[in-house]
């Protein structure tokens, strides 16, 4: 791509000043007007009003017998952020894929600036200014960040060789404009990127060239607070330039922070579109799920004195001397910022990563580290963070994917195995509200959130002595979240020792009897349920940063 083909001046995301308005939910004067109509947004060069709406007219979509969408009519006004909400499998991703030319609608059509268009491919949608930041970033592993961002439009020097200096310059400038400087090195290889960095590359890719509509599909699921704020600042700038933003997320707090309007889908149909300042979390939940979830975190404390998991001085590549005890019936929350070492500790305890020193005792017996099979046999289960990559057999059914962890138990009942397997899978599919016609459905055809529920079902079904759940509700809708909280409470009542790693603080504060906070691979503190507040947790999660600020050099 030449620099001339990139957005410049007012069209560029960072060409416009950052809107200064703070936006607490429910207190946004003029929130019902398009942003571009508001004072300060009307700068020379801001887009002209389009001739007509961009969005969907009566769109339906079926996959074989599955009716994913029915009669959806919805437009995305310029300069406004429209959030799309709905339970797992409600049809959000399918809707986005129709907008970006990945799927063709079975009925109805897509409108761009009032004109009916037949989008045959993502390239065609892109040429019309429609962009998507997909749920699963697609990164080329063997090339740099810069090449990944500018893939398909790389600058060339004499002899048609790649002009690396120009590419680096361009990417560094992009990083600065998008507010991502310091979060990503243009020279890093695709294969070395963290989940968060992969997401940032996808966002940068979507923002190159002239965009009129940008859709984000659960963009923050792997971003830290800091990266999420950089993304929100960017979205504020996109809005101020008159770009239509579509934002898919299950996170209520984010929706109320960033959205102007909220569209709710249920079972493939549009339930309604409301102004974000005139609705509440409770209203949205009722619309999505059809019931009240006000008792989300209700659970009794049932922890006993019997220590089931005792971790002493465990050191791994990035984890330093961690001590942790979990009692039967206790839920211990592991808090920390992304990169604090929580997932590495979880993987090490489950035998998936080497332990360099220290000891692990499970139910009074030493658990030699380094063997996942041994950990499972000893009664320690881990539902890892990267569930889909690490755990699913995509071409197998929900039944097979659920029962694989309990086959030994079912095998004993040789003749009834298949039906026992099916009953088990059905029981969890129902409890976790997996949207599927049958448990014989191949997992690859499920929506992202429903795939996550299947992996979780497997571990919940196993009922180990110690269960470690790493980000158990990531990508999962609010109805199923409530069910997962209930299952965690039930497991605790049955005497299971639980460790929950979560980046959603309200979730940890609601679930945990005790919160252990990590930072930079170490435990920086522990808070009882009574002591734990968001501020107290964050203070410990940033302990080093605070030490460094107050006493330079002291933290080295
Ligand atoms: N390629 C496919 N083949 C068969 N069924 C599909 C396919 N893609 C989607 N579906 C079905 O369409 C429905 C809508 O799925 P979609 O991915 O749009 O949901 P979603 O609202 O994005 O969910 P999530 O919050 O879990 O990401 C689901 O029932 C899903 O199983």
From TrEMBL:
Which Pfam families is this protein grouped with?
Answer: ABC_tran (PF00005)
Coiled-coil stretches noted in the UniProt entry, renumbered to this chain:
none
- MF (Gene Ontology): ATP binding
**Keywords assigned by UniProt?**
ATP-binding, Cell membrane, Membrane, Nucleotide-binding, Repeat, Sugar transport, Translocase, Transport
Q: Where is the composition biased (Basic and acidic residues)?
A: 20-45
Domain of life of the organism encoding this protein: Bacteria
Q: Outline the extent of the ABC transporter domain.
A: 54-292, 302-545
Give the residue ranges for region: Disordered: 1-59
Designated name of the protein: Sugar ABC transporter ATP-binding protein
């Amino acid at each position: 791509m030449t620099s001339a083909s990139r957005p410049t001046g007012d069209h560029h995301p960072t060409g416009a000043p950052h809107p200064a308005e703070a936006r607490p939910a429910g207190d946004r004067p003029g929130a019902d007007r398009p942003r571009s109509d508001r004072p300060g947004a009307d700068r020379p060069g801001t887009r002209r009003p389009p001739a007509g709406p961009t969005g969907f007219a009566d769109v339906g979509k079926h996959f074989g017998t599955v009716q994913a969408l029915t009669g959806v009519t919805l437009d995305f006004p310029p300069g406004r952020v429209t959030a799309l909400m709905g339970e797992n499998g409600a049809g959000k991703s399918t809707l986005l894929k129709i907008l970006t030319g990945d799927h063709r609608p079975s009925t109805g059509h897509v409108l761009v600036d009032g004109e009916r268009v037949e989008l045959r491919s993502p390239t065609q949608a892109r040429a019309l200014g429609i962009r998507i930041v997909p749920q699963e970033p697609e990164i080329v592993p063997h090339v740099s960040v810069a090449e990944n961002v500018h893939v398909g439009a790389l600058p060339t020097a004499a002899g048609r060789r790649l002009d690396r200096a120009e590419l680096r310059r361009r990417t560094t400038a992009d990083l600065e404009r998008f507010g991502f400087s310091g979060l990503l090195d243009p020279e890093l290889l695709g294969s070395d990127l963290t989940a968060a960095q992969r997401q940032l590359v996808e966002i940068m890719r979507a923002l190159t060239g002239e965009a009129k509509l940008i859709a984000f599909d659960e963009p923050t699921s792997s971003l830290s607070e800091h990266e999420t704020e950089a993304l929100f600042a960017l979205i504020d700038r996109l809005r101020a330039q008159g770009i239509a933003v579509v934002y898919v997320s299950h996170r209520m707090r984010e929706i109320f922070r960033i959205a102007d309007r909220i569209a709710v889908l249920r079972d493939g149909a549009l339930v309604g579109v409301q102004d974000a300042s005139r609705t509440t979390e409770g209203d949205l939940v009722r619309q999505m799920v059809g019931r009240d979830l006000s008792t989300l975190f209700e659970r009794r404390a049932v922890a006993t004195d019997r220590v089931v998991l005792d971790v002493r001085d465990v050191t791994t590549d990035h984890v330093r001397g961690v001590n942790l005890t979990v009692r039967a019936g206790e839920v211990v929350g592991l808090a920390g910022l992304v990169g604090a070492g929580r997932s590495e500790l979880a993987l090490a305890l489950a035998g998936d990563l080497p332990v360099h020193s220290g000891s692990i005792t499970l139910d009074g017996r030493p658990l030699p580290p380094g063997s996942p099979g041994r950990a499972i046999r000893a009664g320690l289960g881990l539902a890892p963070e990267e569930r889909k990559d690490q755990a699913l057999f995509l071409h197998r059914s929900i039944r097979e994917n659920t029962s694989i962890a309990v086959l030994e138990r079912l095998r004993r009942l040789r003749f009834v195995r298949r039906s026992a397997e099916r009953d088990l899978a059905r029981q969890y599919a129902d409890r976790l509200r997996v949207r599927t016609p049958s448990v014989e459905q191949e997992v690859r055809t499920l929506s992202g959130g429903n795939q996550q529920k299947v992996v979780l079902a497997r571990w919940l079904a196993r009922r180990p002595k110690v269960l470690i759940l790493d980000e158990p509700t990531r990508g999962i809708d609010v109805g199923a979240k409530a069910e997962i909280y209930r299952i965690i409470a039930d497991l605790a009542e049955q005497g299971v020792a639980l460790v929950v790693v979560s980046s959603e603080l309200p979730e940890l504060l609601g679930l945990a009897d005790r919160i252990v906070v990590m930072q930079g691979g170490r435990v920086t503190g522990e808070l009882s349920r009574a002591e734990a507040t968001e501020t107290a947790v964050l203070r410990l999660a940033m302990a080093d940063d605070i030490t460094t600020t107050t006493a330079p050099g002291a933290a080295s």
